[in-house]
Amino acid sequence: MFRFFENLVDPYIDYAETDTPPREIWPFLWEYCKPFKRVFAVTAVMSIVVAAVEIGLIYYMGRIVDLLSTDPARMWADHGTELLFVALFVLIIRPLMQGLDVALINNTILPNVGTLIRWRAHRQVLRQSVGWFENDFAGRIANRIMQTPPAAGEVVFQTFDAISYALAYMIGAAILLMTSDWRLMLPLLGWFVLYGALTSWTVKRVGPASKAASDARSEVTGRVVDAYTNIHSVKMFAHHDLETGFAKQAIENARRTFQKEMRIFTVMDVTLVALNGLLILGVVGWALALWTWGEASVGVVAAAAALTLRLNSMTGWIMWALSSFFRELGVVAEGMETIAQPITLVDKQGARPLVLDQGQIRMRGLTHHYGRDHGGLQALDLTVHPGERIGLVGRSGAGKSTLVKLLLRFYDAEGGQIEIDGQDITQVTQDSLRQSIGMVQQDSALLHRSVRDNILYGRPDASEAEMIAAAKQAQAHAFILDLEDPEGRKGYDSRVGERGVKLSGGQRQRITLARVILKNAPILLLDEATSALDSEVEAAIQETLYGMMAGKTVIAIAHRLSTIAEMDRIIVLDQGRIVEEGSHDALLAQGGLYADFWSRQSGGFLKLDDNGQE
């Protein structure tokens, strides 16, 4: 039975992705909840039915009180069958109705709404550009992805479990009192007006207060995760107190915002108790007055008393439900600031996969300054011929990393274009572009998964033998076999820790190399690929790298000039422009900037300056 309700909606159902999600909260929620529209309709009907049944039972209790005023034998003779049917209804039909209602809410909606939103939100965020991620905290992004789905689920839950039920119940209560004696409606209507005013006052304040509290919690998460992610720096500089103080500012702000939110609920609770006192005195007192005047039966008084006591117990729950509803809407609104941001770096309409048959790279007038007036590249022209190995040299801020990021289309160039085999990279799909490029970065961060998973990231469908061959070629197989994580997993099954923290820099770099070797892409980008290796391993890896380069178009960034001395051509960048190019020997003979770099090196590194950002 549970499985039937749990499988009514598939949270992973195919859907049309959009680059411009709705920015308003209700269109946003409706877009995500479309697969549930039929379930929502049935659940709304069941909530109304359940409320109507409860009102009907209160009415019938009043009827029973009136029946008790007759002779017992006659009462059973005249109404025994009726009472039997009511008993069967209470014992069998009512639980089935209630069961259907709660099964739809608890087993169909709640588990699947949150799952669907979390799944789609994660997919949406992963489609954002590298630059988008660089402008925010990973911790804050993750916090919003985790907070928004349960908040949206709570909004849906309260809609059907409380709001629709409460509306149906209050309307039913008014109808019940009106059918007993229309005058009983007067105190109830007056209470409705006051209750509505209190609800309005609460809702207007809870939403903004909740969003402020949610923002503050996200700020705490961002700061805490930032400290944990950079724990080596924290310990190395002995800045424990600095980090706790930095976190305390955010934690205190979260406390103050939460205090403001809770003040609203305190005022609401105290006022609600006073209003409910007026409700009880008004309805029950008026019913007693009508009974005193002989205008109402004992059953009417009993039903009115039962109804008002039930409303008294419900109103606090309803108010909390409404407050929770709008509080969670505030959390959803905060999450939308991340999830609903438009995706700006997208495949052009009609983009086709990159067809790479030679591997020629051509850059014309390439300009990019990250929206500033300095740094990056300025009107750069460069052609890398098929199979050519290019070394890229320059001071920090000369534009080397910018060139690589534009080639990978992590950013769209502000000017000029890049072509691969005559195809403008902005006109091909991003996935096909990046699948054609292998990249070894200086920062060899790994996924917090097994060694096997990290190497197979280069080509997930590779065989075990191919994966091990790549590890051996990267001089990694031997140390991998000696690995063991705290859970006892060994070798290729051992976990490497967050960003590969359980491994040394050289070990991480060799696993990264193995991943790229396994990918075997026709274009190879190297950004200080051997910087984390010791001299003995580097010598072996250099041979591996030159073996990898065979038949590939290669662009290698290096500060250690000895690593690119054997390249076919060396390009020297300065302030975003090409200032020299040629072979290692030719550039030394020119006596220019490259020769100056070479002469200044100690241990094979460039003397760097502080100009700009690469």
Task: Please provide a written account of the structure.
The structure is a single chain. The chain is of the alpha/beta class. It has helices at 2-6, 25-33, 37-67, 72-126, 130-134, 138-180, 185-229, 231-236, 240-292, 298-339, 400-407, 430-435, 451-456, 464-473, 477-481, 505-519, 535-549, 584-590, 593-600; strands spanning 361-368, 377-384, 389-394, 415-420, 423-424, 437-440, 523-527, 553-557, 569-574, 577-582. The protein has a six-stranded mixed sheet with strand order 6-7-8-3-9-10, sandwiched between helices. It has a four-stranded antiparallel sheet with strand order 2-1-4-5, covered by helices on one side. α14 packs across α16. The model is unreliable at 607-614 (pLDDT under 50).
Secondary-structure topology with pairs:
Blueprint: H1 2-6, H2 25-33, H3 37-67, H4 72-126, H5 130-134, H6 138-180, H7 185-229, H8 231-236, H9 240-292, H10 298-339, E1 361-368, E2 377-384, E3 389-394, H11 400-407, E4 415-420, E5 423-424, H12 430-435, E6 437-440, H13 451-456, H14 464-473, H15 477-481, H16 505-519, E7 523-527, H17 535-549, E8 553-557, E9 569-574, E10 577-582, H18 584-590, H19 593-600
Parallel strand pairs: 3-8, 3-9, 6-7, 7-8
Antiparallel strand pairs: 1-2, 1-4, 4-5, 9-10
Helix pairs in contact: 3-4, 3-6, 3-10, 4-6, 6-7, 6-10, 7-9, 7-10, 9-10, 14-16, 18-19
